[in-house]
Amino acid sequence: MRGTDSRTESLFSYVSCEARVPADHPLRLIRAVVDEALEALSPQFEGLYARVGRPSIAPEKPLRALLLQAFYSVRSERQLMEQLDYNLLFRWFVGLSMDAPVWDASTFSKNRDRLLEGDVAGAFLAAVVAQPRVKALMSTEHFSVDGTLIQAWAGHKSFRPKGEDGSPPAPPPGAGRNAETDWRGQRRSNETHASTTDPDARLARKADGQSSILAYAGHVLMENRSGLVRLALATRASGTAERDASLALVDRLRLSVRRRVTLGADKGYDAREHVEGLRARGVTPHIARNDHATKTGGRRRSAVDGRTTRHPGYAVSQVVRKRIEEVFGWIKGSAGLRQTRHRGLGRVGWTFTLAAAAYNLARLPVLLRPAA
Q: In this structure, are strands 193-195 and 159-161 parallel, antiparallel, or unpaired?
């Protein structure tokens, strides 16, 4: 018998969002890990807010919402609020009841500045990887590092000559939003030019033959057992940004890992100063050798010699290190960071680090799934 097409709203509803989410939904495991990490950050949150005054939105809720934005590729925070208003799964994950009002999208901007001061994104990533069930998945000896370019929220027309004192240029008067520009015959570089839209962005390209873009550099230190992100960092793009960030990430890793470790990387990291810096820090450089003929007819010699390459572990690191591209692919594709929507190194770095934490969380339901 055919059912009637009638509305079934009632005056009262006793069904919660909790009852609507399947028991085996992947977000249940992710939310348990997220809640445990946020509980560890509770003392840090207390220090960021005044003890008196009108209560604000709990910082845990916007953070959970931003994780959902990465998981489900929601394009903007305004669309995220629209989804949160009617999506029961989103409401359950964030911690809102069925009839709780959602906040305005501008709340993210206000809360992000406060959470940025406490480096909450980095602390959240550290709290996630410090949990025993996550830590058991991760290697404490073998790591890989790599970097990628994140396109800045600035166009080439904003890249204009600096002032005489080296200060960022001022926008041209009366030019409008999309003024005509002719760069023919002009030589532009980061030393002489800067973006009027985002002065922290730098003109860069990933490899020869590719076009230059205004960008930031995002860097990830990955452990080699499960391919999870251990540390993340964003810097201004430059020719040495990847090697400089590699040493900075190793220094941070050394605060918690004392034993000698290996670090896999591509040929771009095969520079003598960088290799010597790793060895001085107790790190074995499992870096791809960059041996090639030079334009003058000579041959460039790699800084990685037979002391490292003769061991079987070197070949293993060369295979596993390529998995780090999966991290960048997810962050740029699913999390929407192919081009950042924020300006300034602080906000871009905060967002990149949170996206790296979201990548780890998205992998956990598979990694922690009981064996059949």
A: antiparallel
